[in-house]
Amino acid sequence: MNKMVTVKEKYEWLAKAKREYGIAFWQGALKVYPFINALPYKSLLDVGTGGGKYLDHLGSQYETIYGVDWAVEPRVKRENFHFFKTDAWEIPLPDKSVDITTSFDFIEHIEPDRLEDIFKEMCRVTKYMMIHKINSCNSIGSRDDLEKQFGTGEGELHLSIHDNKWWNTFLKDYCQSTFLPTCEFPCQRKQVFFGLVM
After folding, report:
1. Which residue in 137, 184, 138, 189 sits closest to 163, CA to CA?
2. From CA 168, how far away is CA 174, in angstroms rounded?
3. Which residues of 25-39 are buried (b: 16+ CB within 10 A; e: fewer)?
């Protein structure tokens, strides 16, 4: 990767250049939001919020909802939503201050040497459970735009691509147990759901 162009700079550029960026794939979260709404929890943190559209579908039992993103300003309509524009490894919340943490189409965008930092931080602030949807294939959506803007080879946004077995092994260090199986979507893009009990 060209060291003059950071991953963060690419996302900031995308957020400004493509209005739909950060909201296009929120439907994936809807596959598990009925389950999330059935939980007896009061507070939720979404990491890599993007446009945050799925958060408007959360049940009324969630008294406080937080979002974290470093590039996209979310368009969440809920009055109980609080947003932090910051890095996911520096979440400005106290230890064990949220009941459940979610992320959808976010983890695969993280540089491999930052994965441990991010999971440690999410574990620090989470009391009971985490749910993540992780892509396990190369990105395609914004590749041409990024290469045109930043140069050949700068279009790949999925930086941590691993299969279900790899993620299961990695996540054992951060939770007591996992649930929710691999989920293959109709478009054949490999995406995995993980539920983690803290």
Report:
1. 137
2. 10
3. bbebbeebbeebeeb
**Would you say how long the chain is, in residues?**
198
Residue 109 contacts residue 159 (beta carbons within 8 Å): yes
Q: Would you say 70 and 90 are in contact if contact means Cβ atoms under 8 Å apart?
A: no
Q: Residue holding tokens 């230890």? A: 95
How far is residue 52's CA from residue 167's CA, in Å, rounded to a whole number?
25
Scan for tokens 């189409």, then name that residue. Answer: 105
Read off the amino acid at residue 168. N
For 65-121, how does the pLDDT look when each residue is reduced to its tens digit (9 = 90+)?
999 998 777 889 999 999 999 999 999 999 999 999 999 888 988 999 999 999 999
Q: Could you tell me where the DSSP H helices lie in the chain?
A: 7-17, 33-38, 115-125, 143-150, 164-171
What is the number of alpha carbons within 13 Å of residue 38 lying toward its C-beta?
Answer: 4
144: nearest Cα among 153, 133, 135: 153
Q: pLDDT-derived band of residue 183, with 50, 70 and 90 as boundaries?
A: low
User: SS3 of 194, please?
Assistant: strand
Is the pLDDT at 188 greater than 80? The verdict is no
**And the tokens for 104?**
């959808």
Per-chain mean pLDDT for the chain: 84
**Amino acid residing at 69:** D
Element at 28 (helix H, strand E): none
pTM of the model as a whole: 0.87
Residue with tokens 């007896």: 40
